[in-house]
């Protein structure tokens, strides 16, 4: 969940899910020693799990359940080892040929060797297991899947000049800072994938390619954007970037500076700043708009009344998979059934991804964000769409501040939680005091979700619905949606 032009603020990983490998000191390498093991299951991060003759756990890269494999241990730790396959003696029926030529080299899309049905079942199993650890039993889990493997509408590619003077463009290798040079990316939307070769060619002609740190790509319905992170300006290279933008018909921006880079739009179809916006279709969300828009900022006619537009800036968070994001919003709307006169609170509201569609159905929405810039963005988006959304800034990691925020409202019909990976523990610890009838929780980390769900259940809530969204195809990452209802 990277951001455009800025590094996303670091947050501590939960350490519970297995989706993020925990740092640990490497004590020994046994790469030249082979051991035959039987893979028992998948770890949460998608690696195969086996046990050696002493009973020690071994995590095996690219191994699938049921396979017999000769492995080499490349890292030995106190409680477990890490290994890779030297020879696969048997193959799982779930194994498929990875569609990307860089599989195993690039650090992304590390489940391509597992068929899609099994990938998605694995993600649902992870959620079920983590909830069970908290004593929570789930019913059926709905699946919110995308229809295309070419789904990723934003990406950041590293740029590096090697010892021979060759310019490399690509993604990091697994668990490494080494850059894997690529010519295409299987999961990028076509508008971005076709830019990789021209970008490689351009970078090779720059007078000072070492000034370029990375290149970020973004595709929306209205614009294709290339953002260059550069330490300082270079007049000769700037002219080459400008020519590239004109040839490829893209909007070009440059982040200049080392510590506090400043964005300059210098090649956006004649120099104009591009309009960046997320468009949500209310018809597809199952929403009949409570009132018709008349603002000059909105489109005219029936088409306008069925659309909600969320403008954003480089640096704002945007889900990488537009289709799955629309399905997640639709699911939350279906669960909460917003109606005129209802009071809803959206915590961690972002640019208004859930707030505005809920308000379009007639609900009065309080959208809360920790970042003041996002509060301004929500306000501008709600005004442009003529919706009843009040945006407010608050530190949602502080339970006392969350308590004060909720205490200001006599009646809250539903709460939406869409926190970062660190979760919404502060909010979940105080919600039980307010008897809010329904809580919809959207999580990108099932481990912190399980922790927070336990808080809610202890406070009198019950899990009513669960859905898993395959936001990041071919990876072990997932989005989980849960509906809680207060029973006292």
TrEMBL record:
<feature type="binding site">
    <location>
        <position position="185"/>
    </location>
    <ligand>
        <name>[4Fe-4S] cluster</name>
    </ligand>
</feature>
<keyword id="KW-0479">Metal-binding</keyword>
<dbReference type="InterPro" id="IPR002792">
    <property type="entry name" value="TRAM_dom"/>
</dbReference>
<feature type="binding site">
    <location>
        <position position="418"/>
    </location>
    <ligand>
        <name>S-adenosyl-L-methionine</name>
    </ligand>
</feature>
<keyword id="KW-0489">Methyltransferase</keyword>
<feature type="domain" description="TRAM">
    <location>
        <begin position="25"/>
        <end position="87"/>
    </location>
</feature>
<feature type="active site" description="Nucleophile">
    <location>
        <position position="444"/>
    </location>
</feature>
<keyword id="KW-0698">rRNA processing</keyword>
<dbReference type="InterPro" id="IPR001566">
    <property type="entry name" value="23S_rRNA_MeTrfase_RlmD"/>
</dbReference>
<feature type="binding site">
    <location>
        <position position="348"/>
    </location>
    <ligand>
        <name>S-adenosyl-L-methionine</name>
    </ligand>
</feature>
<dbReference type="InterPro" id="IPR012340">
    <property type="entry name" value="NA-bd_OB-fold"/>
</dbReference>
<dbReference type="InterPro" id="IPR030390">
    <property type="entry name" value="MeTrfase_TrmA_AS"/>
</dbReference>
<keyword id="KW-0004">4Fe-4S</keyword>
<feature type="active site">
    <location>
        <position position="444"/>
    </location>
</feature>
<feature type="binding site">
    <location>
        <position position="369"/>
    </location>
    <ligand>
        <name>S-adenosyl-L-methionine</name>
    </ligand>
</feature>
<feature type="binding site">
    <location>
        <position position="353"/>
    </location>
    <ligand>
        <name>S-adenosyl-L-methionine</name>
    </ligand>
</feature>
<dbReference type="Pfam" id="PF05958">
    <property type="entry name" value="tRNA_U5-meth_tr"/>
</dbReference>
<feature type="binding site">
    <location>
        <position position="100"/>
    </location>
    <ligand>
        <name>[4Fe-4S] cluster</name>
    </ligand>
</feature>
<feature type="compositionally biased region" description="Basic residues">
    <location>
        <begin position="1"/>
        <end position="10"/>
    </location>
</feature>
<dbReference type="Pfam" id="PF01938">
    <property type="entry name" value="TRAM"/>
</dbReference>
<comment type="function">
    <text>Catalyzes the formation of 5-methyl-uridine at position 1939 (m5U1939) in 23S rRNA.</text>
</comment>
<feature type="binding site">
    <location>
        <position position="319"/>
    </location>
    <ligand>
        <name>S-adenosyl-L-methionine</name>
    </ligand>
</feature>
<keyword id="KW-0808">Transferase</keyword>
<dbReference type="InterPro" id="IPR010280">
    <property type="entry name" value="U5_MeTrfase_fam"/>
</dbReference>
<feature type="binding site">
    <location>
        <position position="106"/>
    </location>
    <ligand>
        <name>[4Fe-4S] cluster</name>
    </ligand>
</feature>
<feature type="binding site">
    <location>
        <position position="395"/>
    </location>
    <ligand>
        <name>S-adenosyl-L-methionine</name>
    </ligand>
</feature>
<protein>
    <recommendedName>
        <fullName>23S rRNA (uracil(1939)-C(5))-methyltransferase RlmD</fullName>
        <ecNumber>2.1.1.190</ecNumber>
    </recommendedName>
</protein>
<keyword id="KW-0408">Iron</keyword>
<keyword id="KW-0411">Iron-sulfur</keyword>
<comment type="similarity">
    <text>Belongs to the class I-like SAM-binding methyltransferase superfamily. RNA M5U methyltransferase family. RlmD subfamily.</text>
</comment>
<feature type="region of interest" description="Disordered">
    <location>
        <begin position="1"/>
        <end position="33"/>
    </location>
</feature>
<keyword id="KW-0949">S-adenosyl-L-methionine</keyword>
<feature type="binding site">
    <location>
        <position position="109"/>
    </location>
    <ligand>
        <name>[4Fe-4S] cluster</name>
    </ligand>
</feature>
<dbReference type="InterPro" id="IPR029063">
    <property type="entry name" value="SAM-dependent_MTases_sf"/>
</dbReference>
